[in-house]
């Protein structure tokens, strides 16, 4: 029996005793439960899952470990050491995901995710943009807050260097607006017009296996960009998948679930970010596979078979609509 420790930082105790951001908590809870259901469905797996002690959790075939204020770090280390595999979902912000990957290594655990070094590279959007550009991979022009060229073309995007998702991401239409927003810890990136998509891959021993592609529903309200959900499957050019695979394979230490945020622009696909962790798209796309298929693929490096007739529309809170037709 393989013991799997699942830890989702936001609802698993990382913010115990502190206010929970509503959107992050909804996304985190949806991803946590989806993972638990999938891995617990496998006949040879025993799942242990952390939970903020303020939360309630529905019944399931797993063991819950409740986490109170100040207990997350110690509980995480203890369970990572005691489990055969650890699957951690945490924001890249402030080094949260990297620190937990380091903890898994320190206590002798085995991670189902990326190495600390790969997380450090992909979490730093300035470093990642330079890494991709140096390898001839299409990515937006990206600048540190104090190195924005005078001739920057607008619109542009301002976002944290180590932000997660659309956190504090702003759409900027003029140099005047930009001057009020740029500050240390933020970068400026050229805005790419086109269709935003998310390419999900499972990476194992350097080989990247495409799982699915979802359209992203991004909206701009009051200058702030936000993620509302998506749709899978979608039609996409083969060039997008080839670019995503090249980007993922260019980074040593990426492992497990990896999400590549891209834009399908008129002149070709462009890589925006690489997420070295589970992304919200998992909530929707897992419904195109039998229960547990993605978990089994994650553990064994196999390729599950999706239902091509299944269309899933989902939002960031885990609410979804599943429609099945003729293949």
Write the layout of secondary structure elements.
Blueprint (H helix, E strand, L loop, with lengths): L1 E7 L1 H5 L7 H19 L4 E8 L10 E5 L4 H11 L2 E5 L6 H11 L9 H8 L1 H10 L7 E3 L11 E5 L9 E3 L2 H5 L6 E5 L4 E10 L2 E15 L2 E9 L5 H12 L6 E10 L2 E8 L5 H5 L7 H8 L9 E6 L4 E5 L3
Parallel strand pairs: 1-2, 1-4, 2-3
Antiparallel strand pairs: 5-8, 6-7, 6-8, 9-10, 9-12, 10-11, 11-14, 12-13, 14-15
Q: Unreliable runs, pLDDT <50, ≥5 residues? A: none
User: What strand order characterises the main sheet?
Assistant: 13-12-9-10-11-14-15
Strand content: 25-35%
Report how far apart the termini are: 36 Å
- The arrangement of helices and strands along the chain is EHHEEHEHHHEEEHEEEEHEEHHEE
How is the main sheet built?
7 strands, antiparallel
**Count of DSSP E strands?**
15
Give the overall pLDDT as a whole number.
93
Helical segment tally?
10
CA gyration radius, whole angstroms:
19 Å
Helix content range of the residues, please? 25-40%
Shape field: globular
Quaternary organisation: single chain
Secondary-structure-based class equals alpha+beta
């Amino acid at each position: 029996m393989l013991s799997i420790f699942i830890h989702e930082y936001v609802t698993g105790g990382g913010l115990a005793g502190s206010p929970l951001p509503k959107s992050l908590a909804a996304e985190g809870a949806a991803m946590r439960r989806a993972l638990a259901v999938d891995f617990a469905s496998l006949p040879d797996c025993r799942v242990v899952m952390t939970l903020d002690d303020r939360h309630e959790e529905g019944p399931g075939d797993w063991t819950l470990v409740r986490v109170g204020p100040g207990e997350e770090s110690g509980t995480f280390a203890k369970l990572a050491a005691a489990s055969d595999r650890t699957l951690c979902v945490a924001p890249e912000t402030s080094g949260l995901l990297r620190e937990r990957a380091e903890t898994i290594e320190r206590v002798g655990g085995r991670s189902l995710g990326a190495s600390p070094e790969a997380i450090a590279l992909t979490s730093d959007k300035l470093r990642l943009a330079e890494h991709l550009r140096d390898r001839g991979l299409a990515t937006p022009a990206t600048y540190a807050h104090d190195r924005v060229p005078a001739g920057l073309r607008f619109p542009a995007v301002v976002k944290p260097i180590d932000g997660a998702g659309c956190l504090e991401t702003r759409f900027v239409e003029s140099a005047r607006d930009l001057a009020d927003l740029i500050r240390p810890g933020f970068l400026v990136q050229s805005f790419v017009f086109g269709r935003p998509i998310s390419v999900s891959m499972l990476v194992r021993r350097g080989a990247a296996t495409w799982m699915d592609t979802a359209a992203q529903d991004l909206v701009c309200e009051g200058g702030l960009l936000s993620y509302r959900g998506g749709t899978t499957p979608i039609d996409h050019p083969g060039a997008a998948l080839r670019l995503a695979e090249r980007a993922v394979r260019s980074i040593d230490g990426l492992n497990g679930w990896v999400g590549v945020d891209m834009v399908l622009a008129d002149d070709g696909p462009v890589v925006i970010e690489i997420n070295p962790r589970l992304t919200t798209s998992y909530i929707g796309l897992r419904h195109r596979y039998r229960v547990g298929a993605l978990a089994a693929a994650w553990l064994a490096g196999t390729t599950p078979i999706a239902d091509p007739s299944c269309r899933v529309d989902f939002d960031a809170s885990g609410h979804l609509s599943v429609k099945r037709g003729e293949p």
